[in-house]
Amino acid sequence: MSGRGRSEAELFIAGRGKEEVAAAYRALPAEQRFKLLWRWSWWARPEQLAPAGDWHTWLVLAGRGFGKTRAGAEWVRGLAETTPGIRIALVAATLPEARNVMVEGESGILAVAPPGDGRPKYEASLRRVTWKNGAQAQLYSANEPEMLRGPQHHAAWADEVGKWPDGEAAWANLALGLRLGERPRTMATTTPRAVALVRRLLKGEGGGVAVTRGATEHNRLHLPAAYLAEMRSLYAHSRIARAELDGEMVEEVAGALWSRDLLERARIDAAPPRDRWRRVVVGVDPPAGAGEASDACGIVAAVLANDERAYVVADASVQGVGPEGWAQAVAGAAAAWNADRVVAEANDGGAMVESVLRAANSALPVKLVHAAHGKSARAEPVSLLYETGRVRHAGVWLGLEDELAGLVRGGGYEGPGRSPDRADALVWAVSELMLQPRARSPGVRML
Questions:
Q1: What angle do the packed helices 323-337 and 350-360 form, to 10 degrees?
Q2: Among 42, 56, 383, 420, which one is most buried in terms of CB atoms within 10 A?
Q3: What's the pLDDT tens digit per position in 209-233?
Q4: How far, in Å, CA of 103 to CA of 110, rounded?
Q5: pTM above 0.70, yes or no
Q6: Neighbours of 258 (CB within 10 A)
Q7: CATH number of the 260-434 domain
Q8: 5-15 pLDDT tens trace
């Protein structure tokens, strides 16, 4: 579903003056005026209403200001008011975003609820919205996927799925919990971002996934004209305008160190046999301060083969665990691949990083490295190795590839999550294998 339709309200107002519209409204009985003010089907554009058909996921992929949040809040309101006892999951990238946007925002659930006895109650301490008929909506953070493990729901509204830090894990846990009722459904709203989760949902279009596309411009009657003009003036035909205003899925980041085509060309079915490996390195990008349980720990294994190429063989990165958890994951990856070196970034608490890794396995061959340059600057020499065909991916790791494709030449990051943790771990591993001076073999010098 795409394009721009007009709401019943817009069609009625079109061609009529303000006085005529006001007179028609005043002529209605008070009860009808009240109902009309809160009847979403009257105010909604067609693309803001749930599509027909037997879909299990409705993906709204549209520019900012399109009305995604209003559509999501009204969809939840409709389910809650017509289905007593229904259980709905509200999932955002973080809990504050779930509260501030989905529930308490200007277009959130509380704002679209009509006044009176039917108005829902929000209990912040319980992260819960409750309707008088027993319907409930529970708030969750995609940043903590384990929160979604266990609870059961009839339906879910997943907001801004394109910016979820660990989207695939959160989505999987959410989907596994949608097992109440005969027809569980999810509405996913997001500004387009070419991350693994959004790309996978798009691939399911027509097979249970209904997709609505739209642009900021489609909601122009409800947006200040000055805002639209300024946005167009600032961003013109840039990638930002295409994604954030026009709602396009822009696969390539302008100036990216790794293009999607480059990553596809680097992919192979399998690495050379182990008897042709010369070295194995596990690169590690620990969470900031070595104590943050919310950030990802990048863990990537790569090997140097006899053909003088590096082969990435595993992305063992972990999300949402404490120091003991990610240290055990590093030790597990090193053991699984028989690594001769674990290269770990130590800019934030080097001694802590090493002690945490040693606690997991005292025999780990740890090498601490300090970042003298930004992530993009460190990544540039590694991306050149890809361009010359000297690095191969023996597998598919969409999360890792999305981060690589988000690193921009000259600085900056436009990929998923807050930081390219997986990509940075890869850079450390490949740099150790391919860019470090090698010890010279002993020989005879002729005089």
A1: 60
A2: 420
A3: 999 988 777 776 667 778 777 776 6
A4: 6
A5: no
A6: 23
A7: 3.30.420.320
A8: 788 888 888 87
